[in-house]
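During the second half of the funding period, the structural biology subgroup turned its attention to how the target accommodates small molecules. The most pressing case was iron/sulfur cluster, which had performed well in the primary screen but for which no bound structure existed. We therefore specified the complex as follows and requested a full 3D prediction, including the ligand pose.
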Amino acid sequence: MVEFNYIIMASQIQKKPFLLGKSLSELTDWVQEQGQPAYRGKQLHQYLYQKGVRSLSEISVFPQKWREDLANYPIGRSIIDYRTIAPDKTRKYLLRLHDRLLIETVGIPSRDRLTVCLSTQVGCAMGCTFCATGKQGFTRHLQAHEIVDQVLTVQSDFGARVSHVVFMGMGEPLANLEQVVEAVKILNQEVGIGQRSITISTVGLPGKIRQLAEYKLQVTLAVSLHASTQKLREQLIPSASHYSLGKLLAECREYVKITGRRLSFEYILLSGVNDLPEYAEELSQQLRGFQNHVNLIPYNPIDDADYERPSKNRIDEFMDILKRHKIAVSVRYSRGLEAGAACGQLKTANKELALNN
Ligand code: SAH
Ligand code: SF4
């Protein structure tokens, strides 16, 4: 009997290894395959997505014997390897995946929101010279359930519903487009997060912004521009050498046309590199005719990079030039900077820990 159960479990593991990511009807099919009544599918759905159980043995409404049998069934949750809490209450997590690789997730509370900053890859292949993740190189894509798991982890740890999601952690979301779109759908339909409360950030890959537009999601797109000339952009984002600024902006215009959604541009400010007034003028010209918003991100220092954060005066001057050109602009300071843990930094800081485990 034990052996028989094992064979059933093994075949299911091959078919679709993890329960996380399945819809209510798929979960209902699954409980029925296990010889249970259909209503247990709804219970399973609630415990997976709302209560955030890490093991099926925690589902108190299930019969005791079945819970014991299912205790080690793979549901697809990560393990919190390390957590740090900044004075502003931002929590940064290092999460261990099933293959022992580590990713970062951040939970950012504010007065009426709980925002999660999600990773989409282990590492990143784009190689941005100012980014700690870029310095780590690329290891692998995350699967949709591994993206969803990060939201559930933050939700459980804060004991509060996540209201907003930003794809601004490790990795380039459009390089892993299908899994990211699948994760958006699961977050929307199973976890209950509004698509309009989800932002996908990208440096842009040829054809991918257009491809995202075709899914007709209601998410907000944030494009990491960082430079107003092709030459400077390639210097900061090596992958941009395969994608001209003109083509990127043309695809952004197409995105707006297809989706009817606005998009925002992100521009990291690196002292003496891309923060000069003439670049602000040039940026204003590049963005003419766009209904958009520019987020200026003062550089958050990382190891192994020679950049510096500009002075407050420089930031204000850059912002004023954009405003004069009637561009909506705001400055975004990284939250939880005190913990020394911007995108990719937590993992870099804990590399030894990661290697030793
Ligand atoms: N790969 C995507 C999403 C993840 S990076 C992208 O690049 O858009 C998310 C944001 O973090 C980007 O806008 C990037 O510019 C910013 N970022 C990376 N390293 C940073 C640093 N050292 N200081 C400030 N912002 C940084
Ligand atoms: Fe990758 Fe974004 Fe970092 Fe660039 S900034 S290396 S695209 S994660």
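Two results from this model are relevant to the next phase. Residues 130-131, 168, 172, 201-203, 224, 266, 268, 297, 299-300, 302, 334, 342-343 surround S-adenosyl-L-homocysteine (ligand 1) (CB under 6 Å). Residues 21-69 form a domain with the DNA polymerase; domain 1 fold (CATH 1.10.150.530).
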